[in-house]
Amino acid sequence: MAKLQSLAIVAALCFLSSLSVIYANHFIVEGKVYCDTCRAGFETFATYYIPAAKVKLDCTNRTTHLKTFEGEGLTDATGAYQLEVTGDHEDDVCDVSLVSSPVKGCDEAVPGRNKARISLTKNNGIISDIRFANPLGFYKNDPLHICPKVLEHYNG
Predict the structure, then answer these.
(1) For a Cys staple, 27 with which of 31, 85, 102, 151, CB 3.0–4.6 Å?
(2) Quick one: 78 exposed, middle or buried, by C-beta within 10 A (0-12, 13-18, 19+)?
(3) Is 46 in contact with 150 (CB distance < 8 Å)?
(4) pTM for this predicted structure
C-alpha cells in the first residue's frame, strides 16, 4: 500500500513538472489595430480601432534565418487581438505585422506602424507571460474634415 501511495505521489509530481514546462514556454501577445483617420502617422483622439483586422506573428532565428514560429489572428470588436505563442524564442526575431483591414477606405498600412517587434523569451527580466505589442495602424484614404483641428491640438 505504501509503495502504491509513493508511486501515485511520484506520478503526480511528474505530471505537475510537465505542466510547468508547458506553461514556462507559453506567451500571449496582445495589441490593437487602429484606423489613422487623419493620416497623422500616430493615434489621435479621432482614431478608431478596427474589428476583424488580420495580423500575423513571425519568429525567425537570428543565425539561420529560418522561421521558427508563425501564427495569425483577428482583432475583436474593440480592435484588440491576442495571439498564443508556444516555445521560448530567445534566439529569434519576432514581429507582429498587419495582414489586412476589413474597412474599405482604411486599408493602407501606415509605414513604421505596420509592424511591432516583441521579445518572446523568459530570459529577459519580464516576469509576465503577456507581451504587449505597439499599436498597428492603417491610413484612412480620405482624412476626416476635422483633421486640421485634430492636428492643431497636437502641435500645441
Answers:
(1) 85
(2) exposed
(3) yes
(4) 0.82
Count CB neighbours of 46 within 10 A.
19
Grid cell, residue 101, equals: 483591414
pLDDT digits (tens, 9 = 90+) for 20-39: 444 457 999 999 999 999 99
Give the position of cell 495580423. Answer: 55
Could you report the per-residue pLDDT of 117-147, keeping only the tens digit for each? 999 999 888 889 999 999 999 999 999 999 9
At 25, the amino acid letter reads: N
- Cα of first residue to Cα of last residue in the chain, in angstroms, is 79
Going by C-alpha positions, the residue among 104, 102, 103, 99 that lies closest to residue 114 is 99
| Sequential DSSP letters for 85-109 | EES--TTEEEEEEEEE-SSTT--EE
